[in-house]
Amino acid sequence: MNQAGRCRRVFSSCGLLFLSVGCATAATALVSNDPAQLLKQAESAQPSNRAEFDELMGRLDQMAMRLSPQQKLHQRYLMARQIAFAGNYEGAMPSLKAIADQAVDPVLAFRASATVIDLLVTQSRYEEAFARLNPLLDQLPTMKEGDVRMQGFGVAAQLYNEAGQYDSSVRYANQIIKESTDAQSACRGWFYKSDALFESGSAQLPADQLHEGMEACGKAGDTLFALSFQYLLASFDLRQGHTESAIRVLRASYPKVLQAGFPPQVSQFEASLATAYWKSGDLASAVKFANDALVTNANRQYSESTTNAYRVLYEVDKELGDSKGSLAYLEKYVAAHDDYQSRLSAKALAYQIVKQQMLAKKLQIDGLDKKNRILTLQGELDRKAVETSRLYIALLLLVLASIALWTYRIKRSQLRFMRLARRDGLTGIFNRQHFVNEAERQLRYCRKSSRDVCLVLIDLDHFKAVNDTHGHAVGDRVLRRAVDACLAHLRSTDVFGRLGGEEFGMLLPECTLDNVLARVEQMRAAIAAVSGARDAPGIPISASFGVAAAATSGYELRQLMIDADCALYQAKHEGRNRVSLFEAGMRG
Question: What residue ranges are annotated as transmembrane (predicted)?
Answer without folding.
Answer: 391-410
